[in-house]
Write a structure and sequence with these properties.
It is built from six helices and two strands. The protein starts with 13 loop residues before the first strand and ends with a helix. It is mostly helical. A two-stranded antiparallel ribbon has the order 1-2.
Length: about 190
């Protein structure tokens, strides 16, 4: 017949630390640490009441899952993990910038603004340039052909500006790749 478990001061059975540790899948030392930290109710003479101890451990695990420490305060390890993830994302963005894979919004907006200004000025210049040449023209087909030619020239000029921007972008990418290649070579060299 198994030995009886002596009751605690509250009159309920109290179990040795080894039994509690086995039940909670912890080491004896970890059970003692959790009791010292106030997470588990302290047992008398190394003995712990079963129900309050298991309930306290479950509450502790639930709090950890919810991102709270045992005292209800913020879980700093989770905050640190978020901080490290944010730093990694920023480093990745900086790397993409260096490679020419991304561009800052302000730069893109500036380019679009320049292109819009170019389009506007070229389109507004067409009537002034065309007015004198077309003022005596009576043939609608000739007027239309002349205006189409002017619009085509304006669009061609804008395409040249796009090509210059594209070329500059590709040169930036090549420069970033050269930097990447230099970094790779540095890693290959023994230190």
């Amino acid at each position: 017949m198994p030995a009886k478990t002596p009751p605690s001061a509250a009159g309920t059975p109290a179990y040795p630390v080894g039994v509690i540790a086995k039940l909670l899948m912890l080491t004896d030392r970890r059970v003692q640490q959790l009791a010292k930290e106030g997470i588990l109710p302290k047992g008398e003479r190394g003995r712990y009441e079963l129900a309050p101890t298991v309930q306290a451990y479950i509450r502790y695990l639930q709090d950890r899952m919810a991102g709270r420490d045992a005292d209800g305060s913020h879980d700093w390890s989770a905050a640190r993990a978020r901080h490290m993830a944010a730093k990694a994302q920023l480093a990745e963005i900086e790397l993409q910038k260096a490679r020419g894979e991304v561009v800052e919004i302000a730069v893109a907006v500036g380019i679009v603004d320049i292109e819009n200004a170019t389009i506007r000025s070229r389109m507004l210049a067409i009537p002034a340039r065309s007015a004198i040449r077309l003022s005596h023209e009576k043939d609608a087909a000739k007027v239309e052909a002349f205006l189409k030619k002017e619009v085509s020239e304006a669009l061609a000029e804008m395409s040249k500006a796009d090509a210059v921007i594209l070329k500059a972008s590709e040169e930036t990418k090549r420069g970033a790749q050269d930097v990447d290649d230099d970094e790779d070579e540095d890693e290959d060299e023994p230190t």
